[in-house]
Design a protein that fits this description.
This protein is mainly alpha-helical. The protein has one domain. Helix 1 runs parallel beside helix 11 and helix 3 packs antiparallel against helix 9. The protein is globular. About 2% of the residues have low confidence.
Length: 332
């Protein structure tokens, strides 16, 4: 317990050191940063919130697909709103704790409360969904690095990226049942961490057609979610009025996304910001502009997630108010 506490304290201190170091590296006066925040573009902020909501919706949709595939009984009575809201809540906490683990934990507890599911089942289905989110940046990592370091030009890297993405889709289509079997094994491993047996074996393989449809749906939604994340990041640059192109953001995105997969600091705080800054500076963006974008991006995304969470809570609040109204009228 003491070692875990010391580890958390050390990671928190490291995050603070990284943020302070980035401020000095970017030569970023706080007055300039405040001015940047005060002159935000309102139209771009609306797009930031809209793409954030879309990001949560797509993530929730993917999780729902996995849950229905793995154990349909868990999904009874749970609509897409539940999956989106839970994903949004986990994402908000994930900016202060390890992102992927926090989202997994939030989903596990929510599924247990709403569907009486085991913690292991919730964690396993969430992990499978997040695996596909990592596939896209992994595929795009080498083309992005080649472009950043000048190994190849834009045309060559674009063709290479397209071939990798299409090739992986073809691989999923050709080996659907085998991949599903691997996913079943992954789920069994995760449930084993919680001392639980895996309850899906041969029937989890489905048919070849159904397996192909499941995998291609998860992969396709992951591609859309990645593209939406790029649009979100472009909207942030627009909101801040910073001279950063969509191409520069797109090239940096795979590396930034993978930085969140390694929980060195809470929410990859400091690590993600340095990754953003380094990837942008290597593409010709000035250190000050890159640092401004990296730091302001974190704040704007947290704010957008809070707004998204509030919007997603409105139907629940409205339903409770509607349910309470007849009671109050009956008493009067």
């Amino acid at each position: 317990m003491k070692l875990r506490t010391l580890g958390l304290l050390a990671s928190g201190v490291l995050a603070a050191v990284l943020i302070v170091g980035l401020v000095h590296f970017a030569d970023l006066p706080m007055e300039r940063f405040r001015g940047l925040v005060n002159q935000l573009n309102a139209g771009a902020l609306v797009l930031v919130v809209a793409t954030t909501l879309a990001h949560m919706f797509i993530g929730g949709w993917k999780w729902q697909l996995v849950t229905r595939w793995y154990q349909r009984d868990l999904d009874r009575g749970l609509g897409i709103h539940f999956y989106t809201l839970t994903t949004c809540y986990g994402s908000l906490l994930g900016h202060f704790l390890p992102m992927h683990l926090t989202v997994m934990a939030a989903r596990s507890f929510a599924l247990r409360m709403q569907a009486k599911a085991s913690i292991g089942a919730g964690a396993a289905t969430s992990l499978v969904e997040q695996v596909f989110d990592l596939v896209v940046p992994v595929l795009l990592l080498l083309p992005a690095a080649a472009l950043i370091f000048g190994v190849a030009d834009l045309t060559v890297t674009a063709v290479a990226a397209a071939l990798l993405l299409v090739g992986f889709a073809a691989l999923l289509g050709a080996s659907g049942p085998s991949v599903v079997l691997w996913l079943v094994g992954l789920i069994g491993t995760v449930k084993g961490w919680f001392g639980m047996p895996s309850d899906r074996q041969d029937d989890a393989l489905l048919g070849r057609r159904k397996a192909r449809r499941l995998l291609l749906s998860l992969y396709g939604l992951s591609l859309v979610r990645f593209a939406n994340l790029v649009l979100l990041s472009v909207a942030i640059a627009w909101a801040l009025g910073l001279p950063i192109s969509g191409q520069q953001i797109f090239v940096a995105m795979p590396i930034v996304q993978l930085s969140f997969a390694v929980p060195i600091t809470p929410g990859s705080l400091g690590v993600a910001e340095w990754t953003w800054s380094t990837a942008l500076v290597l593409q010709g963006v000035g250190p000050t502009v890159a640092g401004e974008y990296a730091l302001a991006s974190r704040l704007l995304i947290i704010a957008a997630v809070v707004v998204s969470l509030a919007i997603l809570c409105l139907p629940i609040l409205a339903a409770r108010l509607t349910a309470a109204r007849p009671l109050s009228e009956g008493r009067s």
